[in-house]
Amino acid sequence: MPRSGAFDEIWGASGSREGRAEFQHLADWIRDTDTAEFDRRQAAAEAAFRQLGITFAVYGQEEAAERIIPFDIVPRVFTAPEWEQLSTGLVQRVEAINAFLDDLYGAQRILKDGIVPAELVLANPQFRPLLMGARPPHGIYAHICGIDLVRTGPTDFFVLEDNARTPSGVSYMLENREAMLRLCPELFQVYDVLPVDTYPDRLRETLQSVSPRSDHPVCVLLTPGHFNSAFYEHSFLADSMGIELVEAADLEVDDDIVWMRTIDGRVRVDVVYRRIDDDYLDPLFFRPDSMLGVPGLLAAYLAGNVTLVNAPGTGIADDKAIYSYMPEIVRYYSGGDAKLPNVETYRCREPQALQYTLDNLDQLVVKLVDGSGGYGMLVGPTASRAEIEAFRAALIAEPHRYIAQPTLALSTVPTLVKDGIAPRHVDFRPFCLSGADGVSIVPGGLTRVALKEGSLVVNSSQGGGTKDSLILAPARQTIDPDGMHQTLGTMSQTMGRGMKPMQSMGRR
Amino acid sequence: MLARTAASLYWIGRYVERAEFTSRLLEATIRFDALSSRPAGEAAWDSALAVAAADQGFDATGAARTPANVSRYLTLDPANPGSIRACLDAARSNSKSVRTALSRDAWEAINRAWLGIRQATSGGNYATLALVETLRAEARGFEGALHRMLRNEAYFFLGLGAAIERADNTARLIDVKYHLLLPAGEEVGGAVDRDQWTTILHTVSANTAYRWLYRDQPKPWRVADLLILRREMPRSLLASADEVVGLLTALAKLRGLQGEADRAARTRQATLANSTINAIFAGGLHEWLGCYIVENARIDQLVSTQFRFA
Amino acid sequence: MRLNILHRTSYAYSQPQARLMQLLRMTPSSHIGQHVVDWRIDIDRDARLRYRRDGFGNETAMLYVEGPVDRITLTVAGEVLTEDTAGIVQAANEPLPPLVYLRATPLTEHDDAIATFARDVAGSGADGGSPLDRAHALNRAIGQQMRFDTGTMNVERSAAAAFGAGHGVCQDMAHVFIAGARVLGLPARYVSGHLFRRDGASDQPAAHAWAEAHVDGIGWIGFDPANAICPDDAYVRVAVGLDYREAAPVSGARTGGGVETLDVGVRVGLSQSQSQG
Within 10 A of C120 (CB to CB), how many other CB atoms are there? Predict the structure, then answer.
């Protein structure tokens, strides 16, 4: 069973099979469509993904070296007001993240003002002292942020995690939509859904806008190679942006300038969208044993001759220990309260919080501050006695490495499971782009769903799946060819696509 | 285009061509073995190893030279870098890293062939023939996909790799059988002899072509003429040389540059076009083929250098 | 003292290299007690140097050399005026707050042995004593605990490995000091530089290395565990970092395979003798 009292985004309260007012039609569609038909469509989608090679590798599993992430045929839907609430909160948060990074690698006012404990930043391995004073164009460090959101009620959204390094998953947002358009076209006739396929163009424009040279900037996507678990996404994005997909061996640095090797000789590179972690980026400056990196890349970055996307050193902004200070950070830089709240967080480095955590381990979610992908995590209510005791020992030994959060009654969305359609817990990762012209967010994102009944862990490495996330266009006035005014609600037939597909908001 | 991308495409061309050639070689060998009495049938397997330049590698495994062992070594053995499985692994791995330069059809053809060989297990001749049949179908699918690709750099590099590989394969095929092609001895026209020629023609899918062109029984010098000097025959050395020149010219046109590889390929083409089969035999076919294989390897090197593969 | 420094680094390659790239941290900066009168880097072949200050405040240069190259020699030479400040470093370029230097790195991570050792040593000095006393105690104790031994030069050896072995070079002892000081809550960092040998040994096979610890109220203070003293006017600071890796005179990358042979020679002498001669 889903957690008692969980809010279902389509059905309202869990257990109900009546749609919320806005989603009556969707609930009917779910009820009236034969399960076998759902099964057939889902199988068709997954077969297409496999054929395309939309696969990911699970580390340590030789046999399943190439698996597809399960795709769920029932979409998740956000209304226009819900999206409006989310996107303004996201813009505020992403702007604060970039202001925070600009400050940390510059004047460090926020540390001097005592808003965030200096030690938490300075002694953190994710903060890169070597990069002090290196300011990328427009002071933007985290050009691409994936903000993980969870929901507990109709208007109750929380930020669960910020991903400011190299967030992945955007290819699923795009491919899931393609699959839905093909397999469930009837939904798109009823709902006026904002398109997501502008993402690659917007990403390319973002990359170009932060180039150190303005004339015909050359952008490339740097991948660790085709053995990487996210390689499909790398090649997909490079292809749909129309930029070269390069590996380290394709690049060389000479005289503080990055070049790529082509059949006609070398070509200067201005922007590197790198999907390689900081540690492996440049063996000369970071891990000397890295085979994936480009020697001298950091020298070119420090010289201001190349923009790295995201900039190195952004990991400090999505550290889970820093996360607990995000409300203060947002207030410090934006001057207002965070529009998207954090999940309440106990910092186990603080003795009182540690005691509370130890006393309530069976109720809390405990996370490693530097863990990711659902590893190094305890979900108290579903954990075994032994797991809880193992975490207790680890917490006592190294409390500063952990945070704890209450177990939220995450919202559910109807999902196709073995015996039909049932509610399953979800989270949501929209992708926020920050360029010279401000923050823009494609109306969509990656919805991850925990396919196991009652599970709250949505990570693909832990058996999670994905769903398409539909953002409905706002009700609007359009002028039809006869000059008649009509109001189109989100439930009515689509009449032309008059909406600007992206929300663009200026930076402060 | 990235130099690495060009190199990968070129090698996809070579590996797919090699996998296909090896599967034809196997098919022809099985056929010859079935038609012949021992020991000629067994000798056919030795000969197959020699044509695939795999005899030393095979002996290093310590296995006996039985048809089943040789067949398995050439198709599925991961230890043999020239086995069909190893070629398809390499082709697919290269394809994956340059996915964006390949059309979806071309990628899917290679991916399907790779999935097919991954599931294959060694069995008797029947299983091998079934596998070979599947692979040839996939290879045809890949060729079809290539034909539908844009005539851009990616297409030219794929074709270039295939043409260089084909020249090498055909030359080695003729070389290994060269003693059979020498027009000497009383066995000419004998049953074993005829089967050998037929096998060779079969390996390069030229049985019908031979009869259309010569309207005659397979005669050694005619088989040599067909495989070396007939432009109409796609797997002949001259046709491969034509193709290499054509593809390099297309690349030069796109880039506005040409180099040493272009010059070497044109020289080879002109020399070949002006040769006669009698002159080649007069100088010694084996020696001539040896030079040709070396020259082909040199052109391969010049291509790598000219397009900065390394 | 007016010190004359000549630091020569030669690389030879078993096969010609297509390209070379090196990050050099070989240029000292001036601060109180250390005035750089003259300094230059000479490369014995066509090369490009790009100078910049890194995040730690070090003067660095990126060196780019087009091949084919089978050998190369970098010579840094200069003159520095020094004064004895009892190890205290003042008015140096310090872009980073001392707290940064509390974090461990793979080369300076402490193990139980180092932690126990540091606490024992610090505790024995008049029941804890001041942070300064504890740093001094640690500095003295390392020299007693570890044997100086140039035979085991390994630039990628960690503090814990060196401490466990019980001997090492100046770099190992600096790493152990840093690990121990951080256990005691003192920010500590690695210093690479040069040492004028009063015993007359002006020719040395390598540059020197020591450590600095930060004590509230005083600032950064040098500690040379290999000699069990605080640096005086015989020392020239060149670069600092969290460990060897970030302060090493040269970090390099090369394209071309083969084997590299390295030869280093350092000569530190008094200037007068040269100006008179």
Answer: 11
Task: Identify all chain A residues contacting C66, using CB atoms and an 8 Å cutoff.
Answer: 254
Examine the pLDDT at B37 and tell me if it is beyond 80: no
Among A53, A235, A261, the residue with its CB nearest the CB of B3 is A261
Q: Which domain holds residue B95?
A: 1-149
Does residue C185 come out as left (phi exceeding 0), alpha (psi in the -120 to 50 range) or beta? left
- Tell me the CATH architecture of domain C85-247: Roll (3.10)
In a domain, A310, yes or no: no
Asked if the C-beta of A352 comes within 8 angstroms of chain B's C-beta atoms, the answer is no
d(CA B236, CA B234): 6
* Look-up of token digits 């080879």: B268
Q: Do C253 and A296 touch (CB under 8 A)?
A: yes
Which of A52, A249, A263 is nearest residue B307 as measured by Cβ atoms?
A263
Which CATH number is C2-81+250-272 given? 2.60.40.2250
Strands A257-262 and A485-488 turn out to be unpaired
Kindly state the tokens that stand for A447. 């919805």
Q: What is the pLDDT of residue A56?
A: 62
Alpha-carbon separation of residue A14 from A3, A27, A427, A428 (angstroms) = 9, 13, 16, 19
- Chain A residues touching C99 at Cβ < 8 A: 118-119, 122-123
User: Do residues B44 and B28 touch, judged by C-beta distance below 8 A?
Assistant: no
All partners of chain B with 3 or more CB pairs under 8 angstroms: A
Chain C residues closer than 8 Å to A122 by CB: 96-97, 99-100, 102-103
Q: Which of A255, A282, A298 to mutate to test the interface with C (most CBs of C within 10 A)?
A: A255
Alpha helices, H only, A398-503: none
- Domain total for chain B? 2
How many interchain CB pairs under 8 A, A with B? Answer: 48
C56 touching A (Cβ < 8 Å) = yes
In this structure, the answer to whether residues B79 and B177 fall within a common structural domain is no
Q: What is the ipTM of this complex?
A: 0.91
pLDDT tens for each residue of B113-157: 888 888 777 777 788 888 888 888 888 888 888 888 888 899 999
Range of the domain at A291: 213-305
Least confident of B260-274, B275-289, C71-85, C102-116: B275-289
Q: Does A250 touch chain B (CB under 8 A)?
A: yes
Quick check: A50 contacting B, CB < 8 Å?
A: no
Give the Cβ contact number of residue C204 at 10 Å.
Answer: 17
**Whether C42 contacts C72, CB under 8 Å:** no
Q: Are C60 and C54 in contact (CB under 8 A)?
A: yes
How much is the mean pLDDT over chain A?
87
Do residues A286 and A397 both lie within one domain? no
Q: Token digits for A499?
A: 């909406």
Of B2, B96, B108, Cβ closest to residue A250: B2
Q: What residues in chain A have per-residue pLDDT under 70?
A: 1-4, 14-15, 53, 55-66, 371-375, 461, 476-508
Our CA-based measurement puts residue A271 at a distance from the nearest CA of chain C, in whole angstroms, of 21
State whether A291 and A396 are in the same domain.
no
